[in-house]
From TrEMBL:
This is DUF4340 domain-containing protein. It comes from the Bacteria. InterPro entries: DUF4340. Pfam families: DUF4340.
Amino acid sequence: MDKQKKTLLILAVLLGVALLGLLGAKKLADKKEKADAIDSAEESIQVYSVDADDVTKVAYYNNGAQVTLTKTDDQWQDADGVILDDDKVKTMLSYLTTIKASDVIEDTDDISQYGFSSATNEVTVTTKDSETTFTIGMQNAITDKYYLMVNYDESKVYVIDSSMLTACGYSTSDLMPDES
């Protein structure tokens, strides 16, 4: 019996040590994750921010077709006057109303190296006070990020994620109310 108790006690101690190690590793991973999140937040560069309720018009290309959305009397409609689903438009706008970059390249000599010479991805966001045009350049094959120019200002090229392209992925039919 003494040998069984001793073995059981050793196993219990080993189990306790393993659990403490596991908890310590989890705590360390959580700390690293929080530190990474803080670093990421500090490193992001605010490119554009506007309240979605202030947006009155959005224009962009989807699969080569111009998509123009206009808000009239608090209702969104397409270029043909078809009423769109407000919640779907707000979801699409969430990708356009706050744009952050991970980096900015200043004093560029040749913007064509970022894919702006043949850029077909333009997004124009209009509010009651301003109109802002974003030109999306090519994707960087190494980082999977995209290049962005604001209001044709060639002195700054921003490096962004794919959120703006997600917004441009909405066709007019995607934004129509669901049939019940």
